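Exercise: predict the fold of this chain.
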Amino acid sequence: MAAKMEIRRWRGIGVAMSGVVALGVLAATGVYLSGAFDDWQDNRSLSSACGGSLDYSELKEVLGVDRLRAKGSGLSDCKVADPGNSETSVAVNIKQGGGGERLLSLIARMDSHKPGQAVTPVGNGWGAILSTDGGTTWAGAYMVCRKPARSGENDAIVVSMQVDPAGPAEPLSADRRAGLARSLTGTLGKLADKRGCEGTPRGNWIARLPEDSTKNLKRAGEAVGTCRGVASASYESAADGTAPIEDCFLADERGRKRFRLAAYYGPYAKSARRETLVGADIRRPTGGGEGAYWTTASCSSGQALYTVENLHYADVTIAPDSPQEKQALKTFAVNSAKRHGCSPPEW
């Protein structure tokens, strides 16, 4: 009798264990299926982001996340984000056509009269730039889409990105900056291919970017990039003949920024006329006064714009210095125009 009861007890334990194992298998299967479904949703959303034109292959590494999901399948705007934290994201804007509406606003560069961040070139033959402020990085790139000769005109494709990565609010590492640049230019290339256009400038695969030197104060005569030849202490970026925007800050001996020199090419020149403080006054090829001056040059991408502005801080506005500003603008504009293959600037 006791033996039969022992057998029954072990049978009960076996049934219970089988139930536990089955529940475990079902739970694991559920987790697997849930994960597989999440992956399917993620990939499906990413493949249709921005009309299927977004190159998202490196954006997980750029943001420092394990998952990404996209919102917005329209061609002009989309956003990819960590499903668990929508603030960790890349916002993408695409514009096609000949205009330059709000291009500087999309990369936080419209306040050229303020001592904000300077842009740095992507280089490698691309018309692209990056800029950083705290933990946010902006990126912009353009390509002139040359239409068939019978159409009689060209237009531009412009891609803008705003990147807010996971983790502390600090600039992206060099590797992540290069990954962002590859995503930016990859998206631009896909758009050009879809339109069947001969886009220029169209660069090479990006292994690395020029070093971001915009925080390094150079003494007068030490500049070798965008501020080369300017007779002042300065903050500069690497000089690049395809960069659509170039910046150079003139500083005093203590390192305080006083004036911004800027060059704009392609659609960004049109945007600068519409969005910047100095742009509102531009009515002729060259001119200025009261701390802001400009000039222009003819380039294959259209009319380029070169400006110098005295900087406006929250508590003070730097006093104009017409002789220094005009001489610095002339040196800066001549060098930049020559790099970009443009005609000599007008004076």
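Check your answer against the key: Confidence is low (pLDDT under 50) at residues 24-33.
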